[in-house]
Amino acid sequence: MSIPRLPGARGERTGRRAGASAAAGPSASKKPLDPKRAWHEARELIGEHRRSLAVGLSLMVVSRLAGFVLPMSSKFLIDTVIGKHRADLLLPLTGAVAAATLVQAVTSFLLAQVVSIAGQRAITNMRKRVQAHVLRLPVSYFDSTKTGIVISRVMTDAEGVRNVVGTGIIQLLGGLMTAAIAVTVLFYLNWRLTALTAVVLIAFGGMMAYAFRKLRPMFRERGAINADVTGRLAESVGGIRLVKLYVSERRERKLFAEGVHKLLRNIAQTITGTSAVGAGTTVLSGVIGVLVMVIAGRAVLNGAMTLGDLFLYVYLVGLVAAPLVQIASIGTQISEAFAGLDRIRDVMNTATEDGDDAARQAVDDIVGTVEFRRVSFAYEPGTPVLHDVSFAAPAGSTTALVGSSGSGKSTLIGLVQAFYRPQEGHILIDGRDLSGLRLHDYRAQLGVVMQDNFLFDGSIRDNIAFARPGATDAEIARVGQIAHVDEFVDRFEKKYDTIVGERGVKLSGGQRQRVAIARAILADPRILILDEATSSLDSESEALIRDGLRSLRRGRTTFVIAHRLSTIESADQILVLEEGRVVERGTHAELMALAGRYRQLHDRQHGIETDQYINPGEDFLPAAPSPREAMKGGPRTNG
To answer: Which residue, among 427, 435, 357, 444, has the nearest Cα to 390 in the 3D structure?
Structure first.
């Protein structure tokens, strides 16, 4: 089950995100696995941490060899010290066992320190690497990938790395080494019995290989389910006000319960698989135990083996069986780690938006002339959003975008910000194709004030300085004054050091907007984007910062999206978009005189619509009943 997302605020954004999310849902977890790629990734990780692993392997070898002293000394104790009454050898023998035990304890402690730190360092490096790559991915990736999935790739999937370069791989190799040495000695003691034991061990190895091959896709799917559930939980917590406002707590509980129960079913399946491996290990131990009792018991009675040989044989069989149990457990962990590496590799193989920046032109400074030449764009093939759009925005001019919801205004702004690239046509910046400019250099020339501005959970000072971290207190105070931030900051005890909370929740909408405007002023951009920048402000607040926006726009190429048409009357040019096409363009006076779509929108907004501006054949929705009539179930008019 794919956990659905709450719909977004805008039609054109919601549609593509919902469709893309569905495409990136559970089906992604069923993609065929590539064992060669996982092993290649493992070899790379081992190579990066080879020094720590080399030290760990050396300590492991010493520790495991020291562990053989006790079983070997038991044979000597039984056959020589006790069997031949050599009491003089008792103290040297026990001294050797004590020394070997001490060596084993010290090396085991050092081994845990070395490999555990190496594993955690590998996790840290992997998280840094994946996060750095994620930040370079195009916006389209985040449009189609849930936040919880991205976080899971960075934080959760990287955890399994420690089983590849940490304790997991060392324990696996240590278990194999112990088993190899023990089997060699067992062949020396009784090769017939050991040959039978080897057949049983080989059969068990085949069973484990089959089990791990079946378990690995389950672990991969678990990661996808967990990311899906985490993403939905993050959304419901982040939108808790909306959840409570629409009394959706029960629906969110149901969606979360369905997700965690799906996760539970997956975990139950993996538990069944790992339990089956554990049960097989128990059966293996029993079979080997029966073989030892029957064959080795007869060998002792026939004089082919001594009692010390029997004791040593049983002890070594235990040393073989214990690593197999350990290998079963570690093998599961390593399978899960490989599944995580598969998912991380999928992210790391996603092309970044600045991958070919080195071959692009550097941008030291721009004048700010923006030109669209026959630009067409579609988020999905066959569903165009912009059609053959052409216009020029001279440096220092203001271009306003007007149109109904879904007409393509936000998409056009996204192209100006280089979040997307047109399928057809060209976008020119000062006469140079935007696709040939270095993204980092170009975006450093941009400033944005949006309708719903994002603020980080820090101080007001930090959020304003986000555009330029090295800004002085005086510069922050100056832009705060221009944006009228100082008028509400002075009421706070900590002034600019006041913490705004997650997403700026401790500030009002108008206060957040003013902080965002101050941030844009501090950035000193050449191209400014105002996406309904005053929509969250009341009339008084809007009047207060209008001069700040006017100051901000001066000398900068500005793009304005505004539903409140009174705010764009002074624009140098107004583009009217409908269904992704520019249907009208001109100044406010020119468009009003044209008496077309812009005049229609303007008059509707001012409540003075007249029949002469209505397009022939245009459909109108019937008048909605009053809330009281709706509650009573009164009839609607059909219009």
So the answer is: 427
CA 511, distance to chain mean position in Å, is 31
Is residue 133 within 8 A of residue 68, CB to CB? The reply is no
499 SS3 class: strand
Residues 359 and 341 in one domain: no
Give the residues across from 398 on adjacent strands.
558
d(CA 286, CA 30): 38
Which one of 532, 579, 584, 590 is the catalytic residue?
A: 532
The confidence band for 309, taking pLDDT boundaries of 50, 70 and 90, is confident
- What angle separates helix 90-135 from helix 307-348, to the nearest 10 degrees? 10
Cα separation, 637 vs 282, in Å, equals 76
Q: Which residue type sits at 99?
A: A
Residue 157: closest CA among 49, 38, 52: 38
Residues 279 and 393 in one domain: no
d(CA 328, CA 322): 10
pLDDT tens-place string over residues 4-13: 333 333 334 3
Residue 271 and residue 388 in one domain: no
Q: Residue 532 catalytic?
A: yes
610: which 2 tokens? 């007249």
What's the domain range around 159? 17-348
Cα-based angle 234, 237, 241 (whole degrees, multiple of 5)? 140
- What's the CATH number where 292 sits? 1.20.1560.10
- For 159-203, the pLDDT digits (tens) are 777 666 666 667 777 777 877 888 888 888 788 888 887 787 777
Residue 397 DSSP one-character state: -
Return the SS3 of 234: helix
Distances (CA, A) of 461 to 7, 177, 422, 497, 540: 33, 59, 37, 6, 24
Q: What is the pTM of this model?
A: 0.65
**DSSP label at 626?**
P
List Cβ neighbours of 518 (8 Å cut-off, separation of 6 or more).
464, 476, 479, 480, 482, 483, 485
Tokens coding 91: 């103290």
| HSE, side-chain direction, 13 A CA sphere, residue 79 | 15
Q: How far is it, in rounded angstroms, from Cα 482 to Cα 498?
A: 19
pLDDT digits (tens, 9 = 90+) for 261-295: 888 888 888 888 777 777 777 777 777 778 777 88
d(CA 527, CA 446): 5
Distance of CA 18 to the CA centre of its chain: 18
pLDDT digits (tens, 9 = 90+) for 115-149: 777 777 788 888 888 888 888 888 888 877 777 77
